[in-house]
């Protein structure tokens, strides 16, 4: 769990629901949103104060990588099948980070979308990204857009 006001990640014992550790996240201010690669014990944290996404090792409690992303990052999802993290940024982009292996990451791109996208979902079997849009060319709209990932 992220502790936004402390810029920390908290470890919680699921059997007691108690915090058993709090760890500072280097390079992250006002963490907001987290996705987890449970196989490799990596967390992808959205950092609103520093406008970046931080990859945090949950075993060693260290920042592994950080990448600048557009403003308004709200939700991040991890697709374990293609090892990509997707962050919805309300300023008009979906930031995409590729996990090459558990120690190496690269930013693929800030894929342009309509402004106001605050959320997304990833289908782990098809790897499609679903994003609800509230506007089209600055005019109110209500639609679900489906994106197909490409190899980069």
Structural description of this entry:
- With 152 residues, the chain is mostly beta strands.
- It has a 4-stranded antiparallel β-sheet, with no helix packed on it.
- β13 (129-136) and β14 form a beta hairpin.
- Helix content is 0%, strand content 60%.
- The protein is built from no helices and 14 strands.
- The protein has strands spanning 2-3, 8-13, 18-24, 31-37, 42-47, 52-57, 62-68, 73-79, 84-89, 93-101, 104-112, 121-122, 129-136, 139-147.
- The protein is globular and about 45 Å long.
- It has a single domain (2-147), classed as 7 Propeller (Methylamine Dehydrogenase, Chain H), CATH 2.130.10.10.
The secondary structure category is mainly beta
Low-confidence stretches: none
Strand order of the largest sheet: 4-5-6-7
CATH superfamily assignment?
YVTN repeat-like/Quinoprotein amine dehydrogenase
Q: Over the alpha carbons, how many angstroms does the gyration radius reach?
A: 15 Å
- Element order: H for helix, E for strand: EEEEEEEEEEEEEE
CATH architecture descriptor: 7 Propeller
Q: Say what the CATH topology is.
A: Methylamine Dehydrogenase, Chain H
Largest sheet, in brief, is: 4 strands, antiparallel
Helix content estimate: under 10%
Give the overall form. globular
Task: Please work out how many helical segments DSSP would assign.
Answer: 0
Strand content: over 45%
Distance between the termini: 31 Å
């Amino acid at each position: 769990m992220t502790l936004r006001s402390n810029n920390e990640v908290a470890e919680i014992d699921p059997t007691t629901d108690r915090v058993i550790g709090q760890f500072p996240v280097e390079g992250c201010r006002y963490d907001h949103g987290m996705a987890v690669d449970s196989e490799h014990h990596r967390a992808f944290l959205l950092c609103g104060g520093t406008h970046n996404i931080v990859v945090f090792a949950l075993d060693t409690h260290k920042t592994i990588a950080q990448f600048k992303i557009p403003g308004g990052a709200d939700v991040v999802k991890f697709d374990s099948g293609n090892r990509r993290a997707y962050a919805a940024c309300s300023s008009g982009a979906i930031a995409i980070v590729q996990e090459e292996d558990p120690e190496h990451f690269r930013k693929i791109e800030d894929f342009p979308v309509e402004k106001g996208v605050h959320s997304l979902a990833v289908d782990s079997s098809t790897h499609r990204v679903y994003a609800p849009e509230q506007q089209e060319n600055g005019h109110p709209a209500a639609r679900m857009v489906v994106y197909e990932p490409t190899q980069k």
